[in-house]
Amino acid sequence: MKLEPVEITGLTTSINACSCELRRDLHVFINYVMEYEVKRTYRNNTLLKADFMKLAKLVSDPEAVNDVKSSGSSGWIEYIDKLALNMGFVNYDTEGQYMGYTSSEPSFPDNYIKVNTDKYRHFLETTPDKQESFILKVMLDDYKDCKNEFFSRNILGMLEVFDRRGCATGVAPTLNFASIRKFLLELLASCKSGVWYSVESLIKYLKQSHPYFLIPKDFNVKNKYDERERYSNFTERKGNEWKYSQINEKDPDAFERVEGRYVERFLEGIPLVMGYVDTAYTEDYASDLHPSIGHIGLPCA
Q1: Cβ contact 160:290 at 8 Å
Q2: N or C: which end of the chain has fewer CB within 10 A?
Q3: Domain residues for 1?
Q4: Per the domain annotation, does 123 fall within a domain?
């Protein structure tokens, strides 16, 4: 794979480098839960503000303390909290209870976080490369119909996402995002370290060599009543227009507008959070076209 190197010096860009240390903060979170009796909130099943603040002073996110002061929570700490749950290191009630006939949403009374010490100890006893592989696998496998790079903004992401309406229908729920993400990570692994590359050249390469890396040639839909158009899930709009238009597969730039947008948002997801890449954006990345397109420069691997 040959990508086009780019020189960002002198250009008007915004560089997004991950200043958070995910691996370190994962251990910080587990050790905090081991030391303190951590009870989750009754209504929203999140951490209490007091725990958010204590953790904010311990984690690597430089904005965590200010985030807790302004909103009562921290997106980065919530991200680590969910990762620890997905890895099986902690357990707590995620279903809740409906407290009476008039309850419209579940509540979470006496919901304490418990550490799975055996699983966590086993993780600590494995080699660093096995630890990395396990963390990465959990992140690769974390997706649902509407929870993926198309429809959910990444924790460190700057780009807007596609409109979520209808995201549980059509082709989107049938896609194997774990395999898609793994494929793209393997491509990135062939890039030279310390070099900035053009995202446009990556998308061009994928269009020419792997046009079906995301949506199979013979694609499926969730059920027989769903639309069978390839891009039925993906709409865009211009400026302040309220109406979204579906992207037509027959348009010559349809690949760039769907698969290309996915690649842009993938790059500021797992690769950025894991510290594999940095990303750079033109200052006008919030463009007149929604979701924006073509305003991210391929990361420095």
Answers
A1: yes
A2: N
A3: 1-13+131-301
A4: no
Instruction: Note the pTM of the prediction, 2 decimals.
Output: 0.92
Are residues 166 and 285 located together in one domain of the fold?
Answer: yes
Last residue of a domain, one of 115, 149, 168: 115
Contact 37, 48 (CB under 8 A): no
Nearest to 135 by CA among 26, 263, 18: 26
Check whether residue 170 and residue 265 sit in a common domain: yes
The identity of residue 6, as a single letter, is: V
pLDDT tens for 77-102 read 999 999 999 999 999 999 998 877 66
Quote the CA–CA distance of 177 and 151 in Å, as a whole number.
13
What amino acid occupies position 51?
D
Q: Give exposure, 40-77, as e/b (b: 16+ Cβ within 10 Å).
A: beeeebbbeeebbbebbeebbbeebbebbeeeebbebb
Q: Which residues of 7-18 are buried (b: 16+ CB within 10 A; e: fewer)?
A: eeeeeebeebeb
Q: Which of 83, 115, 147 is the endpoint of a domain?
A: 115
In a domain, 124, yes or no: no
Contacts of 113 (CB under 8 A, 6+ apart): 33, 38, 39, 40, 90, 91, 92
Over residues 23-62, the pLDDT tens digits come to 999 999 999 999 999 999 999 999 999 999 999 999 999 9
| Residues 71 and 173 grouped into a single domain | no
Q: What are 238's strand-pairing partners? A: 289
d(CA 81, CA 75): 10
